[in-house]
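Ticket #4471: structure export looks truncated?
Reporter: QA, pipeline team
Priority: medium

Steps to reproduce: submit the single chain below to the structure queue and open the exported record.
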Amino acid sequence: KASVAGAPQGTDFSYTWKVNGSVVSSTDTYTPTQDNLNQFITVTARLQETGASVDETKIYCSKLPVVYIDTADGFGITSKTVYKDATMRIQGNDRFNSANSTLYDGDISIRGRGNSTWNTGYSKLPYKIKLDTKTNLLGFGNSKHWALLANYMDESLLRNTTSYDLSGAMGMVYLKSTHVDVILNGVYAGNYQLVGNVRIEESRANIYDWEDCAGDVAKA
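Actual output as written to the record:
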């Protein structure tokens, strides 16, 4: 259902829903169909009195969670050492949604990650994400630090997922993850694996951090 936030009371709007440029609805609601999967759906709100456009939203129709990332400068991520300011919003699905999971809508910092996987000749690159605040993202543990694995060299996209989940099934410590569709600056970037970074934290490698201890001693 579409609506315009903050509109003066009594203001009437008309709505137009489009899929691939074709109008599919002219009401304030539209229910996606199977044919809409893996396509962008755009809804435009107009003042009913003048027909002037006041707002437009584009969503990606997927059975997976969808991660929308928009960089502050509107350009892609080209460095794996320098973070870039951005915003991130996660669109849930049947398994992960606001009723049973923690999604995200806010500021982030993002850079490239990996060694052999960080190859600017690849059409899909992996990313390291740092949230503004610690978040129990999708119930995977409370942390600021997350990764989007491209799995570019794995045509099945499943090798990492299988190894992680097998470790969990065997009772070992493992990183929870899920596959997501990523929209970067309004363009479909591909299917990624959202997972936490391996680091010393209560929700990750829950061991004593001697490096932090040494830093605290040095400051003292």
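Status: closed, not a bug. The export was complete when the record was re-opened. Leaving a note from the reviewer for reference: Helices lie at 159-169, 210-219.
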